[in-house]
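tool_call: predict_structure(chain=1)
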Amino acid sequence: MDLDAFEASPVGTLVPISGTDPRTAKHFDHKAFLPAALPLATPNLAPETWAVVSQAALALGRLDQAGRQIPNPGLLRRPSIRREAVSTSALEGTYAPFAEVLEADVDDETPSSPALREILNYVRIADSALDYVKERPISVRLLCELQAVLVKGTSGETADAGRVREVQVVIGHGASGIEEARFVPPPPGDQLLAGFQEWETWLQADHGIDPVVAVALSHYQFEALHPFNDGNGRLGRLIVVLHLLREGVLREGLVTISPWLEQRRRDYQDHLLRVSQTGDFDPWVRFMSEGLRARADVATAQVERLLSIQESMRDLVRTLPLRGVGADIAQDLIGIPVVTSTSSSKRYGVSYQAANSGIARLVEAGVLKEVTGGSYGRVFLAEQVVKAIEA
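tool_result:
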């Protein structure tokens, strides 16, 4: 890490670290960056930045209003979580096609690859966390529990899983030694634990900072602390949505920030780094506000497309006519666009034969398409819905 670039930082200090680098097996004496507590007042922001913050708030408001048009907005949340899961994992180098994730998710079977396992782990923690924060605050304890599930069955499931890390981590080092790392977060121990607890206290405080600005600040601080051995990036981006829910900006987790960040990976990393180096939050807040504005607009358009599809499903149910489980499947396709006879039987509490017959009617109507090509374990996809939520 370029220590000179951090020496005069007004938002943190360099602390000495030493040990044996596991990558090079060499002893090191270096320094790590310990971020100071977040400010209790809004940092100085340029008028241009405030304009983008306001635009983001308005876009998020439009999204929230769009989501209220459906009696069961949780249906709209399902595809949003899965889209976020794909992009947030891609930012960490884990890739799987969106349609493949939907198919793997349908019957809770063992994922066919390590990548799918990681992505579906994210889906599970996001589902539970979005419900949790509707009633309770974001906390260190919650994040520890989420991290344990996120890394379960993956290479990140170490002795530190589910706990604040007890090892030194570095960011952007490749095969080089710790001195060449792009960023070195604080060492394990009392300072890291105290910083994480301060972050929780700040997050729950009534400091009066604009919610969009507060979301940007909290995300920076979490990533600078890097409190876990693995999963910090994915958890940090999930916290963005959780924070918006806690602030009352959104009622459902319908916005996905990671697709925007995925397209600007280097800018994202550079902005985070520059805050630590300079203490200037303005470019970072503007960057995150632009992302929230853009993704809120995308999500609003997506919701409108899905609502249009749902209306066409209602018309289909009336004109076929379609009754029973077939009608239920059709109405829920905007949130559950991949189905099997087994999953539908469980979801709607009907026999396998009834679910199979309902799906067959939707295949005949051109709503569903069988995508496995086999006679057993068949999976059916609503292509129109998947296209509407892939943005």
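agent: The chain has a mean pLDDT of 92. Proceeding to next step.
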